[in-house]
Structure formats: C-alpha cells, structure tokens
Amino acid sequence: MQGRDERMSAGETRGTAALALVFAFRLMGMFMVLPVLATYGMELPGASATLIGFAIGGYGISQALLQIPFGMLSDRIGRKPIIYAGLLLFLAGSVLAANAETIWGVIGGRIVQGAGAISAAVMALLADVTREQHRSKAMAMFGMSIGLAFAVAMVAGPLLASAFGLSGLFWATALLALLGLLIVALWVPTPAKAQHLRETQLARSNWLPTLKHPELLRLNLGIFSLHAVLMATFVGLPLALEGAGKLPREQHWWVYLSALLIGFFAMLPFLIVAEKKRQMQKVLPLSVVLLLGCELFFWGFGSNLQSLVACAVLFFTAFNLLEASLPSLVSKLAPLGGKGTAMGIYATCQFLGIAIGGVLAGWLLSHGGTAAVFWGAAGFCALWLIFAATMQTPPYVTSLCLPLSPVALQDSSLQARLRRLPGVADVLLATEEAALYIKVDIQQTQRSTIEQMIEAASSNAKKPVWEK
Q: Which domains, ranges and CATH numbers included, belong to the chain?
C-alpha cells in the first residue's frame, strides 16, 4: 500500500525544504525587530512608549484580520498566487519601514508586513506537495525551521541594528522577502491539483463545533496569552537590560541566544516525559506558573543583570515548552476532519495576542514604566492559569488521513469495522476527498493495522483474522 512507502520523494523533499525556508525567512523578518524596537525605536521622531507598543504588535493586527480570509481565498484561486501576494506585501511593508522618518512610518510598515498573512496558504501548499504518510515529517521540518528562525532572529536583530541601525534592519527583512519570492518561483513545485483537505482547509461547517469546544477555547486563550506575554516581555526586558542591568543594547544578543538555547534544551525532558507519561494536563499549568513567576521576578529583581539573565533562561524554558505543546494539543482535540479550521482559529488568536500584548505593553510603559509592563504580563499569565488549572486530560490520539480506493469507498461496513479496533476514538469517511479520517491511540492500534484493513477492503479480500 502507498502508506508503507517510508521515503519522501525528491520532489516532496525539495518542496518541503523550500516552503520551510520561505516560512522561516518571513518569521525572521517579523521577529528580528522585537529585541530592538523598544530601544532603537525611541530615537525616531514622534516616538513614545505607547507608539513603540503599536510598532511591536502592529503586524499582529493585520495578521489576525487576514489570516483566515487569505487561507480561504487560496482554496479558490490557488496557493501560489496568495503566497506571492503575501510576500510582496511583506516586502512592501519592509521597504516602507526602512524608509520611515517617524515612528508612524514604522507602524505603517509593520501593519503592511503583517498583511502578508500566508501561513494557511503555505500549510495548504505543503499538503498539496506531500503525500499523507509523509506529512508528519514535513510538519516536523516546519517546526524546526520556526524554532531556528526565532533563535537566529533574536541574535541577528541586535547585531544588525547595531551595525546598520533600525533602517538597515528593515532592509534586511526586505531582502529576506525577496529571497522568499525567488524560492517559491524556482524551488517550490506547482501541484497539478490542489487538495482540498479538511486537515488544512478552513471549512465553514466546522466553525461552530470548533468555537464551542471548551477545551479548544482554553488552548486558544492560552496561545493568545502566551504571545501577549512574549510581546510585553520584549517591551520591558530590553529596557531593563539597558537600564537597571547596565547592559548596552549592542550586547543584548548574547542574553537572548543563551536564554533560547539553554531554555530549549531544558524544556525537552519535560516535553518528552509529559508526552510519554501522558501528563500534559499537569505540565502545562506548571509551565504557566513558571511564566507567571518569571514576570514577577523581572519586576522584583530587574536591577541586577545576573538575575535578569537567569530569569530570561527560565522564561524561555517555559515559553518553548508551551509553544511546542499547544499545537499538539489542538491537533488532538480538534473535531475529526476539522483540524484545518481549529488551527486557523488558533493562529488568529495567536496574532490577536501579539497585537494586544504589544499595544497594551506600550501603554503600560508610558504610564508606569517597565514595572507596569511586567505586572501586565503577569496579569495575562494569571488569567490563563485560572483556565489551564481546570484543563481536562487530553485524548492521546493521533489524527490520520488515509486515501481510499473507489472499491474501499463502496465498502459500507469499513467504518464500523474500524470503530471496533482498540483505541479508535472516531472515524469519518470523506467521500468527496476519497479519504478516511480516523482518530486512534497508536499505542493500542498501530497505523499499519488500519492500512491493512483498508488494503483488504480495496482488494475485496476476505476479512482479516483480527475481525473474526
């Protein structure tokens, strides 16, 4: 059966690597300015603490508004046109910010950058250029590229700003957008036909069940709060390092690099154990508590450089753990066949958190200094903790989408036989996609068993022995 082919083809590997690179370049362009806007941005004419907050969170506003519409439009007119348009908007926003003579120009540029909301289109194109059995590998490559982009951005941002100023930093983001356009044009294959899959598509029929799902609502609030806290921290921490910590802004890069690397390796054992022991409902609230403690620590001990650096390590340990675990939980909890819709709403909440976190942090900074910013971030953590503490144990299931032959589609008893397998939570036959969606605990029933049943149905063979 096709599902047993373990190797990605050359085209799949090239397409996945190219799309991951495009995604990483775009995220680097977004993230590189975060560690420097609070310090370098204050030198711009008309700048104030409140407007710096708008500049930091501005791209989240347009991202939140356009993320879902752009994804749905890509289903109608194609993935690549949307990706080209999004990268051109990102390029235009970067050029606008690079040529800005006031803080308002930077804010406008950041909003235009965010208008290039191509995440859903890129993910849909990834599904188009990869087979289902290799999609988890492709998503793993994406995850690594996102983490690497964030780490590189935290180091490159301060270094580029120190060498070329804020304008030079935005010119660098424009170059990244241009490189992304070239990669899409030259390396990303154009699929013969778009696959309108429920796992990547934003389906209207799934909106209400997803929005009403109480556990998904907790996770959406979680990603909103997490990125609001991140934006607020990048408003307050650079100023704390430069002021009370007496660390010149040109040297901030080593703090972020150290915190990210140590935090990444520190969170891995907790993530692995939580998944293996199926204790994520306990680890997640504890991570929120750690995040809350870090914000209070920033407030209470922000006058000491060593304390700030040590706390930054703990902050990124908690942040990396939460950032890695939340999407996995969304995938487990999403209604069967509704993963695309669930992830679209999740991403929208993430960008809303970026927008509100940046804007609110700027306002707090103007009224109460960095202490108020850290208290505000702690407030987001406390609100999240109230909901995270009552989180139910998530179902430890894997969502699979398996292709069906015309013969298997006509097998009226296939769904019933699959439902009787141990660990199967739900089954959905998508006739229009010629696919079967199934949620299963792979510790109880392996994927190969399900594929064998589908293969038997496809060949009209006798029922396998496990059904007798």
A: 11-388 (1.20.1250.20), 398-467 (3.30.70.100)
